[in-house]
Design brief:
CATH class of the largest domain: Alpha Beta
Strand order of the largest sheet: 2-1-4-6-7-13
Strand content: 15-25%
Mean pLDDT: 89
Radius of gyration: 24 Å
Length: 318
């Protein structure tokens, strides 16, 4: 049988409204009463009615987190950090995934149907989604993907610098033939990383040609025919992310120099060592959650664009 506020009120000897205020840490209720109410609620197995709370306050204390590659451990690492920081602010989170590289209108409608107060998106929102975001006063905070100026709060890493660091590392390893592997056409983070890579090559009087770019779709295995070409012609490859880099590493028997991006090894044991471009994930997620709370409380704040520096983490196979 479902436990109600009335059940708790009878045991504690106070009104249902007082029980509700105690569970919500109201300053009108003494600490001693709060402790007693929460203990009784826990002992009875009381579960809060989130829908009722939303109707009363206008807020659900839920934040949606959406990304586009379920196989990539980077997103689970970042989502865990975000969730923990949201919980510290008394917000819970819901995870949404998609095969699309865009937070389109269909996906946006699915997310807001869950009565979230805000959305943290690792994919770029469409203009239609942003219009509805404004209409419903549900802020979208973009993490990782750069949006057009003035569309949404955006938190990104310095991907151009990452590309430069990767090229210079491979160049300093005396690599004679260097290439890039990743999604290019629709993923703007990949475009920025590749642009930085090309700039660094040009500074060395070298050129990254079209034939040196190996296109791989997110969440897909590297095409088999790439391996023979890379093993035969290249001694250095910069990969869009660590997941692609590990796939390449396993299929080239560690015979070429590889640089990844995201430093997923920082938060998990992979059994393989990989040189990678890293960022301060704790700092980034802290700033994003802080901004989420600010925008929930004041939707009309001036939009923010923040870029974080990256660094190269060298790991040598032993």
């Amino acid at each position: 049988m479902k436990v109600t506020l009335g059940d708790i009120a009878k045991i504690v000897g106070i009104s249902k409204n007082s029980v509700s205020r105690a569970l919500n840490d109201s300053n009108e209720i003494s600490e001693a009463t709060k402790v007693k109410v929460k203990k009784v609620a826990k002992d009875l197995g009381y579960v809060r009615n989130r829908a009722a709370k939303t109707l009363r306050s206008g807020k659900s204390n839920l934040v949606g987190i959406v990304f586009d590659d379920m196989l990539n451990p980077y997103f689970s690492t970042m989502s865990k950090l975000l969730r923990n920081k949201l919980l510290n602010k008394n917000y819970d989170s819901l995870i949404f995934t998609t095969d699309s590289t865009e937070l389109d209108l269909k996906l946006f409608n699915i997310i807001i149907s869950k009565n979230v107060d805000a959305i943290i998106s690792f994919i770029k929102p469409s203009l239609e989604s942003m219009k509805l975001s404004k209409k419903y006063q549900v802020p979208i905070i973009c993490l990782g993907r750069k949006t057009s100026s003035g569309i949404a709060d955006t938190f990104i890493t310095n991907d151009v610098l990452g590309g430069k660091l990767a090229f210079n590392y491979l160049y300093n390893k005396n690599c004679k033939k260097i290439g890039y592997m990743g999604p290019v056409s629709k993923v703007e983070t990949s475009i920025r990383r590749l642009n930085g890579f090309k700039v660094a090559a040009k500074e060395k009087n070298l050129e990254i040609k079209e034939e040196d770019i190996f296109i791989v779709a997110l969440g897909k295995k590297i095409p088999e025919h790439y391996f023979e070409s890379i093993m035969k012609n290249y001694d250095g490859i910069f990969c869009y992310n660590d997941l692609i880099a590990y796939d390449l590493l396993l299929n080239t028997n560690n015979k070429i120099n590889i640089v990844g991006f995201d430093n997923i090894q920082e938060g998990m044991f992979t059994g393989l060592t990989l040189t990678t471009i890293s960022s301060d994930k704790d700092k980034i997620t802290t700033d994003v959650v802080t901004r989420v709370i600010e925008r929930i409380n004041n939707f009309d704040l001036e939009l923010k664009l923040k870029e974080y520096e990256v660094n190269l983490v060298e790991r040598i196979e032993r």
